[in-house]
Design brief:
- The complex is a heterodimer of chains A (about 180) and B (about 80).
- With about 180 residues, chain A is mainly α.
- Chain A folds into two domains: about 60 residues; about 100 residues, Winged helix-like DNA-binding domain superfamily/Winged helix DNA-binding domain (Arc Repressor Mutant, subunit A, Orthogonal Bundle).
- Chain A contains nine helices and no strands.
- Chain A starts with a helix and ends with a helix.
- Chain B is mostly helical.
- Chain B has a single domain, classed as Arc Repressor Mutant, subunit A (Orthogonal Bundle), CATH 1.10.10.
- Chain B contains five helices and no strands.
- The longest helix of chain B is centred in the middle third of the chain and has 20 residues.
- The N and C termini of chain B lie far apart (about 65 Å).
- Classes of the chains: A mainly alpha (about 180), B mainly alpha (about 80).
- At the A-B interface, helix 1, helix 2, helix 6, helix 7 and helix 9 of A face helix 1, helix 4 and helix 5 of B.
Chain lengths: ~180, ~80
């Protein structure tokens, strides 16, 4: 129970960004597990079903909420010159905050910046980010959970990471 | 390979699924392009830090509620 609860809670919180909503999702999913009972063919079937149902319930919870926070992703993707080089101020292009340790990145002002950047991602982008980078599912498993093609999942994941990276670099990268 | 082409295949590069010829081109470009090296380092770190931030623990109160829920369903 504990392993499934952790997975469901992580995914639900990652998508809904609200602990109250995530708790409701966990209860909904567990009720459905109980009702399905022995209807699963095995542990693998249960695992992939849990990710699929958790993703669906979480995205449904988000429907119509906090859309105003979501940023247009186009503004957060790299811009290029005609020759394919990146466009922008050289100091910004060279900004590298990657040596900041976790204890610094995951606390205080940096943590707030990271949480805001995650909030601003569209729900479907955050869903693939959580399933791939947190749960470490394969692209095929993520595609099954979100009901989309592998190609669409890979594109969305790459755009989500680029958009997050851009936001973190704009706010953490100055002077590094 | 241009910066645009490099960034387009970063995901495959980090997954280790890039074809050998593209991998050679990417590594050659990285050796000569400090902005792309910074981009790769921060892209990789973004992935790590977003995963670390999402690694949350289930609240004890919720676990207790789930145990009650499962107990009731099994006995009821």
């Amino acid at each position: 129970m504990s392993r499934h609860a952790s997975r469901v809670y992580r995914v639900a919180l990652g998508i809904t960004r609200s602990s109250a909503d995530a708790e409701e999702v966990v209860q909904d999913v567990f009720l459905q597990i109980v009702h399905k009972g022995a209807g699963f063919e095995g542990r693998a079937a249960l695992g992939s079903w849990i990710y699929r149902i958790t993703t669906n319930v979480s995205l449904n919870k988000r429907r119509g909420k906090r859309r105003e926070l979501e940023t247009s992703l186009e503004d957060l993707l790299p811009r290029y010159k005609a020759d394919g080089h990146r466009e922008g101020d050289r100091a910004f292009l060279l900004a590298d905050w990657s040596s900041m340790p976790d204890r610094e990145l995951l606390a205080g002002e940096s943590r707030r910046i990271l949480e805001e950047a995650l909030d601003r991602l569209p729900d479907h982008y955050r869903a693939v980010l959580v399933l791939k980078d947190v749960e470490e599912l394969s692209s095929e498993e993520v595609a099954e959970a979100v009901g989309d093609s592998v190609a669409a999942v890979k594109t969305r994941l790459h755009r989500a990471r680029m958009a997050l990276r851009e936001q973190l670099t704009r706010r953490l990268g100055a002077g590094r | 390979m241009s910066c645009r082409e490099l960034i387009a295949v970063l995901d495959d590069y980090l997954e280790g699924t890039l074809a050998a010829d593209l991998l050679r081109e990417l590594e050659r470009h990285l050796a000569e392009c400090p902005p792309c090296r910074a981009y790769l380092a921060t892209y990789r770190r973004t992935r790590e830090v977003a995963a670390a931030a999402a690694n949350v623990v289930v609240p004890e109160e919720l676990k207790a509620r789930l145990r009650r829920l499962l107990g009731v369903s099994r006995t009821g």
